[in-house]
Amino acid sequence: MRPLGVQGAWLLENRAFTDDRGEFQELYSGRSLRHALGYEPAVAQVNRSVSRRGVLRGVHFAQVPPGQAKYVTCLTGAVLDVVVDIRTGSPTYRSWEAVALDTPYRSLYVEAGLGHAFMALTDDTVVVYLTSHGYAPAREHGIHPLDPDLGIAWPENIDPILSDRDQRSPNLTELEQRGLLPAYADCAALHRSLREGEGGSPDSDIDAG
User: What are the extents of the domains in the chain?
Assistant: First the structure.
């Protein structure tokens, strides 16, 4: 499990165990996350999406508190998964990082307060993601994934396919002006309270934002 350049995002490498019967894999381990984060994330909902090549979902985020953390795994096919720092006041505000999830042995953890999006690179791409809080439309928002101010480098050889909702999403600057973006200080306070609620850990002095 290693941190990405955007603080609060982690890439996990999951092992599989094989024998003559087949294969066994632990897709999710709260204990592993607790060791890195200092708290064990709640799991309130498990979602599955099936996308054809070019489908672009996001950039989505939820208001903090309580926010919505995500644990993302691509079971079939491949996606370009992108984490965006949309936390006003963050040292890496407006930065983004992309990782390829093209095997079920790699997963991405995205803390509450970050923006998240992915593009399917193949047909019949299946993504499963666990969320810390259930779907709540009133506190969930989207940023247009093609916002030039973000400048996310989506694959040039694939035409993006957006939902009506994502196509209508405002850009980052508009959401900032409307005061709808998460504040870095609020995110840091949220994750500090989660660590303190767990009684701390060897890594509890990390400000995971």
Answer: 2-178
